[in-house]
C-alpha cells in the first residue's frame, strides 16, 4: 500500500523547472530597466531611491547601484554657447537702453523734443535730428548757434567699450540745384559728413568707428505732400550699433 501511495503522489507533482529561466528573464529585464533609467537621468537622489527599491526586490542586502556614479549626460557644446551668447546679447541690449535713457534725458533738459527723437530698432539705437536745428535750407554747414549742441551730442557718443556709429543724411523731395549741390543725394551726404566731422573733434572718440552716408529723398518717413511731412523727412540719423547681434555673434 505504501508504494502505491508514493507513486500516486509523485504522479501528481507539478514540474516547476520553468521558473528558473523565467526568473532569469525577469532579472535581465530589471537590469535593462536600471541601465536605461541610469542613462536617461542624472538625479542622484532618485537613483539612490531606486537602488533601495531594487535592493529590497533582490533581497541581497546591497543596492544594485551602490557606490556607482550616475551616468553623465553629455551637454552639447552648442547649448552652452547659445546660453552664453544669449546672455551677452541681453546685456548689450540693456546697455543700449541705458544709452537711450541718457540721450532722452539730454533732450528733455534742453527742451529739444521737437528736434530730437530716439528709437530702438533691429539695427541698434537710432537718434533722429531734424535738419532745421543744424542746417540752413540747401546748406551743409552747421549753424554757428548750434555747434555747441553738436559738441554735447559727441560727449553722449563716448562709450566704453566703443561702438560703431553710422550717420545718415536725408532730404525731402524738393529739387535742389544751387552752385554747391546739384542733387539731394549730394546734400544729404555732405550734411552727414559735416555732422560726423563735428562729432569726431572730440578726442575721446575713435574716428575709425564712424561712417557717413546719404539717401537723399529716397527714404522718407512721412509724406512729402505737406510742409510738415517734408520737414520730418529732412533729417540726420545717428545709428548707435550693438556690440552683439541677436544670434550671439560679435558685431563687426
What does this structure look like?
The protein is an alpha+beta fold. Helix content is about 45%, strand content about 10%. The chain has helices at about 1-10, 20-40, 45-60, 75-110, 145-155, 185-200, 225-235, and strands at about 115-120, 125-130, 165-170, 210-215, 235-240. Strand 1 (about 115-120) and strand 2 form a beta hairpin.
Structural key phrases:
alpha+beta; 252 residues; elongated
Low-confidence residue ranges: 61-70
Structural class: alpha+beta
How do the strands of the widest beta sheet line up side by side? Answer: 1-2-5-3-4
Morphology: elongated
Largest sheet: 5 strands, mixed
Note the topology.
Layout: H1 2-11, H2 19-40, H3 44-58, H4 77-109, E1 116-121, E2 124-130, H5 147-156, E3 165-170, H6 184-199, E4 210-214, H7 227-233, E5 235-240
Parallel strand pairs: 3-4
Antiparallel strand pairs: 1-2, 2-5, 3-5
What is the gist of this entry?
The chain has helices spanning 2-11, 19-40, 44-58, 77-109, 147-156, 184-199, 227-233, and strands at residues 116-121, 124-130, 165-170, 210-214, 235-240. It has 252 residues and is of the alpha+beta class. Strands 1-2-5-3-4 form a five-stranded mixed β-sheet.
Amino acid at each position: 500500500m505504501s508504494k502505491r501511495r508514493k507513486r500516486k503522489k509523485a504522479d501528481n507533482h507539478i514540474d516547476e523547472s520553468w521558473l528558473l529561466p523565467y526568473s532569469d528573464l525577469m532579472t535581465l529585464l530589471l537590469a535593462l530597466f536600471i541601465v536605461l533609467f541610469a542613462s536617461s537621468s542624472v538625479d542622484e537622489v532618485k537613483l539612490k531611491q531606486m537602488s533601495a527599491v531594487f535592493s529590497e526586490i533582490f533581497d541581497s542586502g546591497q543596492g544594485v547601484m551602490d557606490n556607482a556614479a550616475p551616468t553623465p549626460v553629455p551637454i552639447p557644446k552648442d547649448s552652452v554657447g547659445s546660453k552664453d551668447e544669449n546672455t551677452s546679447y541681453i546685456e548689450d541690449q540693456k546697455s543700449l537702453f541705458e544709452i537711450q535713457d541718457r540721450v532722452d534725458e539730454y533732450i528733455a533738459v534742453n527742451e529739444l523734443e521737437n528736434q530730437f527723437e530716439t528709437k530702438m530698432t533691429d539695427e541698434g539705437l537710432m537718434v533722429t535730428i531734424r535738419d532745421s536745428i543744424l542746417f540752413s535750407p540747401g546748406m551743409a554747414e552747421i549753424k554757428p548757434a548750434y555747434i555747441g549742441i553738436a559738441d554735447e551730442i559727441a560727449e553722449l557718443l563716448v562709450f566704453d567699450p566703443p561702438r560703431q556709429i553710422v550717420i545718415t543724411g536725408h532730404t525731402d523731395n524738393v529739387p535742389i540745384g544751387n552752385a554747391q549741390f546739384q542733387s539731394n543725394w549730394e546734400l544729404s551726404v555732405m550734411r552727414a559728413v559735416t555732422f560726423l566731422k563735428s562729432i569726431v573733434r572730440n578726442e575721446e572718440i575713435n574716428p575709425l568707428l564712424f561712417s557717413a552716408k546719404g539717401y537723399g529723398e529716397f527714404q522718407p518717413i512721412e509724406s512729402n505732400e505737406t510742409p510738415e511731412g517734408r520737414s520730418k523727412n529732412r533729417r540726420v540719423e545717428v545709428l548707435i550699433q550693438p556690440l552683439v547681434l541677436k544670434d550671439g555673434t560679435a558685431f563687426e
